[in-house]
Automatic annotation (TrEMBL):
InterPro entries: CAP10 (IPR006598), O-Glucosyltr/Glycosyltrsf_90 (IPR051091). The chain crosses the membrane at residues 36-56. Residues 445-469 are annotated as: Disordered. It holds the Pfam family Glyco_transf_90. PANTHER family: GLYCOSYLTRANSFERASE, KDEL LYS-ASP-GLU-LEU CONTAINING - RELATED. Residues 166-414 form the Glycosyl transferase CAP10 domain. This is O-glucosyltransferase rumi homolog. It comes from the Eukaryota. Keywords: Membrane, Transmembrane, Transmembrane helix.
């Protein structure tokens, strides 16, 4: 079918039609009294062909142009495609935790980032990432714990498949170990500035740049599927029982041997001699592996009203899986933070637990929740909703995009591909692994680019961050007051 796409074609349509209508017989002339009818008919056909032209050209836009068109945010897309984000229809603003990108990059805002700074970060890095002309290259230095490095590299590759050729050229160092190593005190007043080093978590006394962890694309060693699939599974698991019908105790299952803080938690377990309203279980991953991980489905663990989160050697990957259940997360006071927890607020998304007296703090939290079931249920739902809405994979990629984009603006050198680097490609990476590693890579492979632009990153505003911190501190103080009053009343009664 011919596509009428220019003015000459449009003119030809109208000229041919008007001549065939008005000049079929040049000898015939309509009576003057019918001239009005003639004009009306002419206008009818004129408007009719205008409508056909507009409709025809809009539905037959060449493919090369369609890819460049920018549709309104409210365009209605199918909800069946996981790449569509219906939330963008009413709000394109990034979630609250995105504001911390500016703060994480603050140490280099005035000086910029030199190549010498980046090279100093190599001391502990597992690999270097170079993004150049829309391609990603990696220079590996040493092996990581399990396959953290492999799946983190895979994450970078998926980001570039999600937003092809939208990221600027950049170069960075990545450390896959648990604890941050760039201590802010070591660089106070130094001219050289701190080395920019990316990792999965940081703390208040460190300058490590926080990045989404490897498990978003799967943790094959313990059979945890990619986050997009886990999030859907937990969402379905939440529907199996109403919050008020669940076990009215606090639940935790994990490895207590990675840190003294977790071993201390085990003292709070329910026994014949004491009742702290907790049920705590030791996870034996070797035994679970041999049994085929039958008792480790995350969606099957949303059966209690309360779930405990406590750090291990550092921040724990378990955090997002615990908080995705719509149980109330009893969040033991942490030292470390990942990229998204800084957008969540005590008493709104979780319940804070003191780390100095865990048992009594847990007991009070459970008692308070069971005496205020509507409010407790609301806290559990709000925490779960935050993750379901603000930590969906589309927004994980948006966080990565904005962090890397803002980071690249600080570079004062031209990125280059090192001689020992290799280009990351899906076929070569999946071809080098087998079993669950291969399956999880295939499951998390982005088959086509995003159909929408990244969310809008809020500007740097220290006032907003300060107000957010004050809100969190006020919530913590309120819980401390309630807890103190509760135990004082218990002592008076006994």
């Amino acid at each position: 079918m011919k596509r009428w796409s220019d003015r000459s074609d449009l003119h030809q349509i109208f000229c041919n039609d008007s001549s065939s209508f008005a000049l079929q017989d040049s000898r015939w002339r309509p009576p003057k009294k019918k001239s009005t009818f003639k004009i009306v008919v002419f206008l009818f056909f004129f408007l009719f062909f205008i409508g056909l032209f507009v409709r025809f050209t809009s539905t037959n836009t060449p493919m090369f142009w369609r890819g460049k068109r920018k549709f309104p945010q409210s365009t209605n897309h199918s909800t069946e495609d996981h790449r569509q984000n219906p939330d963008r229809a009413w709000s394109a603003t990034c979630p609250p935790h995105f504001r911390w990108i500016h703060e994480d990059l603050r140490p280099w805002r005035e000086t910029g980032i030199t190549r010498e700074m980046v090279e100093r970060a190599r001391k502990t890095a597992h690999f270097r990432v170079v993004i150049l002309d829309g391609r990603v290259y990696v220079e590996k230095y040493r092996g990581s714990i399990q396959t953290r490095d492999l799946f983190t590299m895979w994450g970078f590759l998926q980001l570039l498949r999600w937003y092809p050729r939208k990221l600027p050229d950049l170069e960075l160092m990545f450390d896959c170990d648990d604890r941050p190593v760039v201590r802010s005190a070591d660089f106070s007043g130094q001219r050289g500035g701190p080395p920019p080093l990316f990792r999965y978590c940081s703390d208040e006394s460190s300058l490590d740049i926080v990045f989404p962890d490897w498990s978003f694309w799967g943790w094959a060693e313990i059979n945890i599927k990619p986050w997009r699939r886990v999030l859907e599974d937990i969402k379905e698991g939440n529907k199996r029982s109403k919050w008020k019908d669940r076990v009215p105790l606090a639940y935790w299952k994990g490895n207590p041997h990675v840190d003294p803080n977790r071993r201390d938690l085990l003292k709070c377990n329910l026994t014949h001699q004491q009742n702290w309203d907790t049920l705590l279980y030791i996870q034996d991953w070797d035994k679970e592996s041999k049994a085929g991980y039958k008792q480790s489905n995350l969606e099957d663990q949303c059966t209690h009203r309360y779930k405990i989160y406590i750090e291990g050697w550092a921040w724990s990957v378990s955090e997002k899986y615990i908080m995705a259940c719509d149980a109330v997360t009893l969040y033991v006071k942490p030292r470390y933070f990942d990229f998204f927890i800084r957008g969540m607020v005590p008493l709104e998304h979780f319940w804070p637990i003191t780390d100095q007296s865990k048992c009594s703090s847990l007991k009070f939290a459970v008692q308070w929740g069971n005496n205020h079931t509507n409010k407790a249920e609301e806290i559990g739902e709000e925490g779960s909703n935050y993750l379901q809405k603000n930590l969906k994979m589309e927004l994980v990629y948006d966080y990565m995009f904005h962090l890397l984009n803002e980071y690249s603006k600080l570079l004062k050198f031209r990125p280059v591909v090192p001689a020992g680097a290799v280009e990351l490609r899906p076929e070569t990476m999946t071809g080098a692994v087998a079993g669950l590693h291969k399956k999880f890579m295939e499951d998390s492979l982005e088959m086509s680019p995003s159909d929408s632009e990244p969310c809008d990153l809020p500007p740097h505003d220290p006032t907003v961050l300060k107000e957010s911190q004050e809100k969190k501190l006020n919530a913590l103080r309120q819980v401390e007051i309630w807890e103190k009053e509760y135990w004082e009343s218990q002592r008076k009664e006994h």
